[in-house]
Amino acid sequence: MPSRSPAYPKKLFYKIQEVANIIGVEPYVLRYWETRFPTLSPEKDGSDQRRYRQKDIELLLRIRELLHVEKYTIAGAIEKLKDEVRGGRRKARATADAGGDLFDGLPGEADSATPAFEEDSGLNESQRKSLRKVHDELGLLKRELEEWRDELG
Questions:
Q1: Per-residue pLDDT at 137
Q2: Is the Cβ–Cβ distance between 143 and 15 less than 8 Å?
Q3: How far apart are CA 67 and CA 48, in angstroms?
Q4: Fold of the domain built from segment(s) 16-152
Q5: For 144, phi and psi rounded to 5 degrees?
């Protein structure tokens, strides 16, 4: 059974200690997970401090759940996340083909999925990094638009 996400303040960026407190692990564990999970890559600011976003926290919560609750090995958790990404992509395509919502297919707050351009796309790392930033910004815009839509009723 999936565990419930802890309540925490929503903001654009989080420091490593804040994220460690939210996830319930030490900062060194987060740094270690970054070396093992390719989809986990928080950006760094000018002073080389990690800046985690909402999508990073959602991914970290899922990683913690896989490792600590469902008792996957790291290799098993990596494969499980890949399977979830593939399944999510198929679902998004099916929704779009069925004439889905305006926001379907855009990254969202809870999206920890790897965008299609991350896998064997022929792009170099610089191009993937640029697209990743655009992808993340679209997710933030999507969340803001959804909040406005909900407020307007």
A1: 77
A2: no
A3: 28
A4: Multidrug-efflux Transporter Regulator; Chain: A; Domain 2 (1.10.1660)
A5: -65, -45
